[in-house]
């Protein structure tokens, strides 16, 4: 009888996913769900064939070089893979996989929640109720921004960007977008393409970010970009925190240049810039984009499919190329 591949699972995963992993592999789990850190993962991976990691596990080139020789695959439980230096992993001969598609709807739903929550002052309103500061109904008490019929700018028109556009059409929003490449007309569905990010910005009553975090996009929502947005615009981010320059965004929310922001991701999360917590016009969530039971199970199953394919000698469907 051949032995099962040895897998290190770095974070606690939904029960059905862990059950399947336990069935297929000789697996080591993390029931306490503590974030282990690269050193601990490397130590646990001694003699393991693969590691199933999450966005909280940072694998730069140096950590990848220190992974035991026995490890042949890094499967991440996420669509984003900015926490892994993929070229360094591929150079070492490791396979790297992610979990695209299965979280598109949950993340697009969350983007709409951020957009609506930011525009309509959900944070402020919730606090009024909870803190018993809800006075009589008033025709003029802090008023939000109308969403219906407004212009929505989408930075990154991949699967999630297109799913957000689909939802926003239900609010009669006019869709504008920027991506490296223009979509075919049937995928564009009337959305207006802008060849550069700067061209897109003046057309955004709302700007929602759906690009990956790469050296090109990191910090691109900066003071210069925000200056090109219409006054009172709303910025929504459910992609990666480091795409936004926090200093510039906080200044614009404080000065009134921007009307509001809806943020699910932050640079350095969970240690976010503390000034966000005091902003009445920021609607903040703790990286919940894919956080539904259905989606988290689907992500786990997708990561397991990749591992299973790899150990069966096939190329996993979600293999990253660099
Ligand atoms: C991902 O999959 O990259 C998400 O950020 C996790 O929700």
Query: Regions with pLDDT < 50 over 5+ consecutive residues?
Result: none
Structural class: alpha/beta
Small-molecule binders: (2R)-2,3-dihydroxypropanoic acid
Overall pLDDT confidence: 97
Largest sheet: number of strands, sense, barrel closure = 7 strands, parallel
For the record, give the distance between the C-alpha atoms at the N and C termini, rounded to a whole number: 36 Å
Query: Could you spell the SSE succession in H and E letters?
Result: EHEHEHEHEHHEHEHEHEHEHEEH
Number of DSSP-assigned strands = 12
Spatial sequence of strands, sheet with the most strands: 8-7-6-9-10-11-12
**β-strand amount:** 5-15%
**Rg estimate, integer Å:** 21 Å
What is the overall shape?
globular
Number of helical segments? 12
Question: Which range best describes the helical content: under 10%, 10-25%, 25-40%, 40-55%, 55-70% or over 70%?
Answer: 25-40%
Q: Briefly, what is this?
A:
The chain is an alpha/beta fold. It has 12 helices and 12 strands. The strands form 2 sheets. The chain has a 7-stranded parallel β-sheet with strand order 8-7-6-9-10-11-12.
């Amino acid at each position: 009888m051949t032995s099962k591949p040895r897998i290190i699972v770095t974070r606690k995963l939904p029960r059905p996913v862990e059950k399947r992993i336990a069935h297929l592999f000789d697996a080591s789990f993390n029931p306490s769900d503590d974030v282990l850190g690269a050193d601990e993962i490397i130590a646990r991976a001694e003699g393991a064939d693969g590691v199933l990691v999450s966005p909280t596990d940072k694998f730069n080139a140096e950590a990848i070089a220190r992974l035991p020789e026995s490890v042949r695959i890094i499967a991440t439980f996420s669509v984003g893979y900015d926490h892994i230096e993929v070229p360094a992993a591929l150079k070492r001969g490791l396979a790297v996989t992610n979990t695209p598609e299965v979280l598109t709807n949950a993340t697009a739903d969350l983007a709409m929640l951020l957009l609506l929550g930011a525009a309509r002052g959900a944070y402020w309103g919730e606090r009024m109720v909870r803190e018993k500061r809800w006075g009589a109904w008033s025709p003029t008490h802090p008023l939000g921004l109308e969403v219906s019929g407004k212009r929505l700018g989408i930075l990154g028109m991949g699967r999630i960007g297109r799913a957000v556009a689909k939802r926003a059409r239900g609010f009669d929003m006019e869709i504008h977008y920027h991506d490296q490449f223009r979509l075919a007309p049937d995928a564009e569905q009337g959305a207006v393409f802008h060849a550069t990010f700067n061209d897109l910005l003046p057309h955004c009553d709302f700007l929602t970010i759906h690009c990956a975090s790469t050296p090109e996009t990191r910090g691109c929502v900066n003071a210069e970009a925000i200056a090109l947005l219409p006054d009172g615009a709303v910025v929504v981010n459910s992609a990666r925190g480091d795409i936004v320059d926090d200093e510039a965004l906080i200044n614009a929310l404080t000065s009134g240049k921007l009307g509001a922001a809806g943020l699910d991701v932050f640079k350095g999360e969970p240690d976010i810039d503390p000034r966000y917590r005091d902003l009445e016009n920021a609607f903040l969530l703790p990286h919940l984009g894919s956080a539904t039971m259905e989606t988290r199970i689907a992500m786990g199953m997708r990561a397991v499919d990749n591992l299973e394919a790899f150990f069966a000698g096939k190329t996993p469907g979600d293999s990253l190329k660099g």
